[in-house]
Amino acid sequence: MQDSATTPDPRRWKALIFIALAQLMVVLDATIVNIALPSAQDDLGISDGNRQWVITAYALAFGGLLLFGGRVSDLWGRKRAFVVGLIGFAAASALGGAAVNTGMLLGARALQGAFGALLAPAALSLLAVLFTEAKERAKAFGIFGAIAGAGGGVGLILGGLFTEYLNWRWTFFVNIPFAVVAALGAIAVIHEPAGSRNPSKLDIPGVILATLGLVSLVYGFTRAESDGWTAGMTLGLFVASAVLLFAFLVVEKKVKAPLLPLRVLTDRNRGGVYISLGLAAIAMFGLFLFLTYYLQVVRGYSPVKTGLAFLPMIVTMIAGSTQIGARLMTRVPARWLMGPGFLTAAVGMLLLTQISLDSSYTFVVLPGLLLMGLGMGTAFMPAMSLATHGVQARDAGVASAMVNTSQQVGGAIGTALLNTIAASATTAYATSHAAGASNPKLLQLNSMVHGYSTAIWWAVGILAVSSFIAVVFVNAGQGGPSASGKGAAEGADEGIEKAVPVMAH
């Protein structure tokens, strides 16, 4: 352990409050706008074609710039990056809330994504360097992980309340007090350990290639959803992404101070975590989308009631994270929490494949959500803590950003892939049942439910694969990430080796 880590910061628990507050703001922002979108579209006259860009502009900037943001926080110092990210996010939110046309709103969303990409890795790597004792670290990550997982659901509830009782603009303005309190708190109580910065120069070619490659990948899946998988633009974006990301890996191998040191990627444990969390994000993002539509469009729930319907999942996610994941993390190898956790979530999704026009919330939707939350909370906790296992302190920011990136890209893929599957299944059902249908509206609703159910079946399969990868690839020693770390590539800096990724929606 490094000298800087031998004496824990006495104000670290106060620091956790402000770091967690910033995390909650970033995570809930991804879903709070979803519920407000129909109102904003009417108010600003946004076309149906441009509507998706309110979500996509944020995802593109956030996912595309995360690696850059992670490395900047390693270079500048996490505290400075954290505070700048908060102030920028608040300013972008004020701009979004005051938007008078489509362009202004989309620009504000892109700025939110960009500052979020600076803020998120800084927050996560601050945890990595502030909490150095195994049991304390497990507790801190449990709290942080619960907020990361629950933030999306909180966003749905707040989005419903603001849209129904106030105005869609409040889904932006609500970020300002969060950011101001977190920034003032950070300035007052956060002290970064000495010697944890990475003083090397910024890898500009790496930044350009990684950002363009990731943006092409995310945008490619967005175009696949609207234009189809075989459209020229879609295929062109995927090819461009593959070429750019391959070039990025070649550059990273040769430059002296790489944006993403390849040692961060090649460790077996981290590889298993990145892939399994990315796959889980595909399934999770899809589920939030389909269940929101199912409850509002098919079942006729109000925005507030829809948000509240997700509340039980938030409760079990917090329980899984703090009571199971965090408590067992130092006693049980990570894969025996991750594998069964993802499998439990898959069983929850399996129940949700049974939805119909008149399914009981209590007997079908609720048990599915409870199992989903419990499984995901349990699995995310050790996975998040293992994400930068064995990484030196100066790489903590970029290693955290890598997990964020896998989840953001996973989320973009999940939304596009599962949406396309659902749309195809809906069309096929409507076509095959059109002849005997006496009620067109009923046929339309049945077709939609069939589409959602089909897509959720795919999500079940994806979660099962995620569970398999966690069990097979993750091989950290007894005690999971707090043990000696058999699978770690770089055993140095054992005490400053963990960070928690965002579950940003």
UniProtKB/TrEMBL annotation:
Annotated Gene Ontology cellular component terms: plasma membrane
CDD domains: MFS_MMR_MDR_like
Lineage: Bacteria, Bacillati, Actinomycetota, Actinomycetes, Kitasatosporales
GO molecular function term, any single one: transmembrane transporter activity
Organism of provenance: Streptomyces netropsis (Streptoverticillium netropsis)
The keyword Membrane appears for this protein: yes
Gene3D superfamilies: MFS general substrate transporter like domains (1.20.1250.20), Multidrug resistance protein D (1.20.1720.10)
Subcellular location: Cell membrane
NCBIfam families associated with the record: efflux_EmrB
Stated name of the protein: EmrB/QacA subfamily drug resistance transporter
PROSITE patterns named among the record's database cross-references: MFS (PS50850), SUGAR_TRANSPORT_1 (PS00216)
Membrane topology label: Multi-pass membrane protein
InterPro entries to which the protein is assigned, alphabetical: EmrB-like (IPR004638), MFS (IPR011701), MFS_dom (IPR020846), MFS_trans_sf (IPR036259), Sugar_transporter_CS (IPR005829)
